[in-house]
Amino acid sequence: MPIARALRRFSCPRALMISALLWGSGFISIGLTGMAVTGNLFLAVLGLFFLSVATVAYTPFASGLVVELAPESLRGVYLSINSQCWAIGYLIGPPLGGWALDRGQFAADNFWLGLALSVGVAILILEIVDRRLKK
Q1: In the predicted model, what is the mean pLDDT of residues 37-42?
Q2: The domain containing residue 35 runs over which residues?
């Protein structure tokens, strides 16, 4: 609740951009955990902290954005599709992560970097959505 309250002053897309930056920070921290010689525990805790705060920041504002975008008669459908996106992520993520781990240290390290870079795409899309909502 405190995180949602703190982000309430932003529009839904802006709050989701902040959440995305937290996701990216978490991905980088977790990736560095495998590369660092020392401080692995600190990096792992820091990464999990960022990822947990990102999840807490994401959830209310993603639903809020869906409500803003969806016509009233189709809100239930839009919200169910929003939930399905998480399910698809849970379907794709573990096999993709396992594949990266099977490819060796270089692929495993760069897997987290790739995830962090994907945040840039999410922020770009959210910026476009924010501009369109303001019009």
Answers
A1: 91
A2: 2-134
Q: Give me the CATH number covering residue 112.
A: 1.20.1250.20
- In this prediction the pTM is 0.88
Angstrom distance (rounded) from CA 67 to CA 123: 19
Task: Give 15: exposed, middle or buried? Use CB within 10 Å, 0-12, 13-18, 19+.
Answer: buried
DSSP 3-72: HHHHHTTS-HHHHHHHHHHHHHHHHHHHHHHHH-SS-HHHHHHHHHHHHHHHHHHHHHHHHHHHHHHS-G
- Return mean pLDDT, the chain: 92
How many domains are there within the chain?
1
Q: So what's the pLDDT on residue 75?
A: 92
Place of tokens 């962090």: 116
